[in-house]
Amino acid sequence: MIENTSFIAxxxxxxxxxxxxxxxDRPFCSARCKLIDLGEWASESYAIPQQTSEExxxxxxxxxxxxNKSFL
Length: 72
Ligand SMILES: [Zn+2]
Known about the structure:
CATH superfamily: Erythroid Transcription Factor GATA-1, subunit A
Order of helices and strands: EEHH
Binding site for Zn(2+): 10, 13, 29, 33
Shape: globular
Pfam families: YacG (PF03884)
Low-confidence stretches: none
Number of strands: 2
CATH class: Alpha Beta
Cofactor: Zn(2+)
Protein name: DNA gyrase inhibitor YacG
CATH topology: Erythroid Transcription Factor GATA-1, Chain A
Subunit structure: Interacts with GyrB.
Mean pLDDT: 76
Bound molecules: zinc ion
């Protein structure tokens, strides 16, 4: 059986990492990059508190991209 693995560039450090169930931090290459990105994003959202609707969209996309996360 051939795994359909695609590679994506980490938004934080641009390192290519596999988009697979083995990488719970995708699209980031590691939990560290994920925290860095979330930290920056949190700072921005504190500066612009009116963008809560975008926050909801981001979480929806996350669920859609990680179907294994729930509904089991
Ligand atoms: Zn990274």
